[in-house]
Amino acid sequence: MDHTNMSAVNNFIISGISDDAMIQVTIFLLVFIIYLLTLGGNLTILLLVSQDTQLHTPMYFFLCNLSILDIISATNNLNHILISFVSGDRTVSVLRCIMQIFIFLSLTCGELLILAVMGYDRYVAVCNPLRYHMIMSDRICALLAMLCWVLGTVESIPIFWELLKFSCYKSNMINHFFCDIMPVLTLSCSETHFLDLYILTIGVGISAFSPCVITFISYVFIIATILKIQSTTGRHKAFYTCSSHLTVVILLYTTLAIQYMRPHSLVNLDSNKLISLFNTAALPILNPLIYSLKNKDVKDALLKRLRFSIIMNHKDSKI
User: What pTM does this model have?
Assistant: First the structure.
């Protein structure tokens, strides 16, 4: 192996999306707006679910977990774009970079598991409605949510540990807008076969494929049950309760498949940055939008809160 220009690195430099000043300003404004919308949208979901008793159901409990994941993920992935634009400093320590990768992977694994659990919840609601509240009890829901968070973290620990052992890099320039696993593996001159194998087997085979199979099987039974419903109105209502979750699942798995289901040696990092921008910036804001626009209960709760706020403001103005 040629070790020319290969050395230990203390800090990485994040290249960002573009070196053009005007494009940087545009991207900063776009990301800043998306980040504010992500915080606002997901915090609104959390507020509505916590204050409206009609939303105190397993589906919205898991939606709250999804919102918390999205808030943390967006903060973790987009903070460097915002901070580096204001400060002008694109450097990040190796440890902080590895921590960002660990948090990103943990949250992504957790989100896939939460979506699988939500798929199972929809299966029980549609296919076994009479036993729904017994099967999806508060205790079971809390255990399932905790399991998703813990498994997402545990599955990412070996990657974190292996990255800490990397001794040298071909360069300290990361061709991305945040620390992601693929650009770091591309830079490393340390042995990466274990990580390649782990990402392929555990990352793709278990963390991604297993939740996908659970979700797929759930929807096979859901669709089979819906097709047995005699009335068109009944079929439409049953499918409508699942459409928001199904839309989010399709969007997330599509972007992850395009982005990560390739050996890192074949990854085009420049094109991957655009896919990552959609995955890390757009999806967290799309989740609350999809659930708000496609879900009658959330829309009704939001309108109720808006009417209440208008009435209270009107009363205050009269005093």
Answer: 0.84
